[in-house]
Here is the input.
Amino acid sequence: KSLKAYFSTQFLVGSAINAQQAKRTEQDTDALIIAQFNTITPENELKWERIHPKPDTYDFSLSDEYVDYGLANNMFTVGHTLVWHSQTPEWVFEDAQGKPLTRAALLARMEEHIQTVVSRYKGKIKGWDVVNEALNEDGSLRDSKWRQIIGDDFIEKAFTYAHAADPDAELYYNDYNLYKPEKSAGAARLIKSLQNKGVPVHGVGLQGHYSLTHPALNELDDALTLFASLGIESMITELDISVLPFPSEAEQGADISQDLALQKALNPYPNGLPKAQQDALSARYKEVFSVFSKHHASISRVTFWGVNDANSWRNDWPMRGRTDYPLLFDRKNQPKPAYHTLMTTP
Ligand code: XIL
Here is the structure.
């Protein structure tokens, strides 16, 4: 039994993998990835800062290993991500003197990057997160450097350049909190405007950085209905379900090592997840997947953000140094109760 086999009539099931995993350094993790998943996403290895650290320097050593891994294992290999405000070096927006680029110069730089990267993996990377996280929570466009310098049309330009570089690749808009009504409405407006202009957009990626309480199932359901009505595919792209309390802004900045009470409140299970919370996680996975299954006709894949709890970014986000249990495999790569719960027919 495996995730990919269990859900094979509904959607692909995948994971983000990191550089170590693409290098196959840990045998049991490697075996687990191959047994369970039929699609992969690079956790960091294709981000601008990694592959294009300086104006005239590309470094494809890690991304090549990632793509080779996907090809060797016959997986639907995703590219993440071309245009984002984060993990993008500052020089991208500046000229050699450190002055802000003009619109024309930044567009030329964006086109050169997209053309170089997408054409390198033409026919190998099957789908691209072309633009990542361009929206505010209220559905308006985020005031990123991309938007400040180029204008709102930086998004359609990115999709157009990606399509020119590989006309067969699927092109996605990816963002978090797309279950929130205002934000999903903003994404729908954005996608419709691309469609109206004839710009190729094939899918929307809903990052799934969830918790035991968020999203509300009806909001998720509504968002998936909305995106299906646009005639595009939906993907759950970065699934992990934190079992920890979401800290306030002040708590995120606090030094919890100096405050035992806060430490206990914000990092309550440093030595393992108690049975009650393990059960809560199982029930939560079951219910969010029941919504995914309801929408399986429009969902092409569900991708976890990490293979096991040990390598999940949720141990460090939204605050550093906690012990979280957000995935289906534990720190020894063993399936957790949530894994078994998920694969029982209702
Ligand atoms: C995260 C990675 O998991 C971390 O290793 C890295 O330090 C920061 O980025 N949204 C995205 C992902 O689109 O690329 C982010 O990945 C998580 C949030």
Remarks:
- DSSP finds 14 helices and nine strands in the chain.
